[in-house]
Amino acid sequence: MEDPTVHQLRLLLTLAEELHFKRAAGKLYLTQPALSQQIRSLEQRLGVRFFTRTSRRVELTPEGQALLPLVKNVVDATDQLRNAASRSALGSTRLRLGVCENVAALEVTRGVLDALSGLYPCLDPEIHVLDLVEQIPLLEKGEIDAVFAYLPVPEGLDGEALATEPRVVCVAGSDPLAARSSVTLADLADHPVVSLASRLPRECRDFWAADPRPDGTPVRYTSHQVTRFESLLSMASFGRAIAFVPAAAARLYPRPDLRYLPVRDLPDCTLSVVWPAADRDDPRITALRDICRQVRRRDLPAGPPQSLTRLPQLESAYC
Question: Cα separation of 72 and 75, whole Å?
């Protein structure tokens, strides 16, 4: 028995999806005879018949149906190997940046990304748009190099602050509090807070629930496990819970069914670019940290920041 090629396994998956030689061949940019020959060769190599063929239809055999998940596992593993090898080859230059969905449109975020591309094009930033709870776990697992995230963050992570802004509370437009111009945490004591998914570190979840409250009032949570910012807002709009969010959300996510209210005794939040503390001397992180400092110091808007400068010690390494 000969080992099949990954190419043959990919052809098999496409044919199993289409169950039609002409459509599968067209999708694969092959002729029908060439596809048929490859499938026959695969079946001979494995000693298994994957398909039954008639003039009218193609069907998976029971053996083919049973083996299909294993075929997919092999193809997926090959893709993962290729992607990992590609990341390894680019690891010395490419910078993988996570951007949470609720900060992607912020001017300061755009300012850093534009400056990074303009000053160090050879870093070739790879942007990953993430939900509310993915960013820290992916950073800790090494699947991204840095992330735009609001403080606090767990131990072992380091970063550079970009901007500080108030936190506000989202209440449903039908809530009696919606008529107020501002509230206090005591005004919100009877309102449960929309629960974020447990994958988010505990210190982050506590911060965004204002838990504990200054007077010791216990915070009640909903049973939801929210992962996306839009879902967080929607849950608050139904009127059975509240959510604390950065003040910029009122401008970026205006909704007729929500009110964003200042909370007079709620501390501000700080957006930072965060990376593993162990990587602080990585030249890519050094460049990123310097750009964050320049952008914050100059309070630059989005757009190519022509007044920023490159670090001389990095010019030979990056462009």
Answer: 5
In sequence order, what are the residues at sequence separation of 6 or more whose Cβ sits closer than 8 angstroms to the Cβ of residue 81?
A: none
Helix (H) / strand (E) element for 313: namely: helix 312-315
Are 249 and 168 contacting, i.e. CB atoms less than 8 angstroms apart? yes
- Report the half-sphere exposure of 307 (CA within 13 A, side-chain side): 10
* pTM score, whole prediction: 0.67
Grouping H, G, I as helix, E, B as strand and the rest as coil, residue 65 is helix
Split the chain (319 residues) into runs of 10 and give each run's mean pLDDT: 88 92 89 93 94 87 94 90 59 80 91 87 85 90 93 92 96 96 95 92 94 90 91 94 96 95 97 94 89 79 50 48
**Contact yes or no for 99/249 (Cβ under 8 A):** no
Pairing state of beta strands 167-172 and 157-165?
Answer: unpaired
Closest CA to 294 of 96, 111, 123: 111
Residues facing 167 on adjacent strands: 246
